[in-house]
Design goal:
The protein is an alpha+beta fold. It has three helices and four strands. The chain has one domain: Alpha-Beta Plaits, CATH 3.30.70.100. The chain has a four-stranded antiparallel beta sheet with strand order 2-3-1-4. β2 and β3 form a beta hairpin. It starts with a strand and ends in a 7-residue tail after the last strand.
């Protein structure tokens, strides 16, 4: 299993426009083979932060989705990003 997680930072006044522009990306991802979860969401504390969380069955599923899209919509500029890929070797109940 693959998890993509982290944060994107935009100017606070641009966050809603950014999230609206990527709304279709989340819908496409969730409909893609191997996608277990996909969300980019407003952080409830930091007005300029977007939390990223994706869960995929495999690298192949992730790469197939990433390679299937056309150009991204016009997005407000990012101030910074810290998003990483994690390989999960086991899962258990909390």
């Amino acid at each position: 299993m693959i998890i993509i997680a982290g944060r994107l930072d935009v100017d606070a006044e641009d966050r809603d426009a950014y999230l609206a522009a990527v709304d279709g990306v989340a819908r496409l991802a969730r409909a893609s083979a191997g996608c277990l979860d996909f969300v980019q969401a407003a952080d409830p504390i930091d007005a300029g932060r977007i939390n990223v969380y994706e869960r995929w069955e495999s690298d192949e599923d992730l790469h197939r989705f990433r390679g299937s899209g056309g150009p991204l919509p016009d997005l407000p500029p990012l101030r910074s990003a810290d998003v990483q890929k994690y390989r999960i070797c086991g899962v258990e109940a909390p």
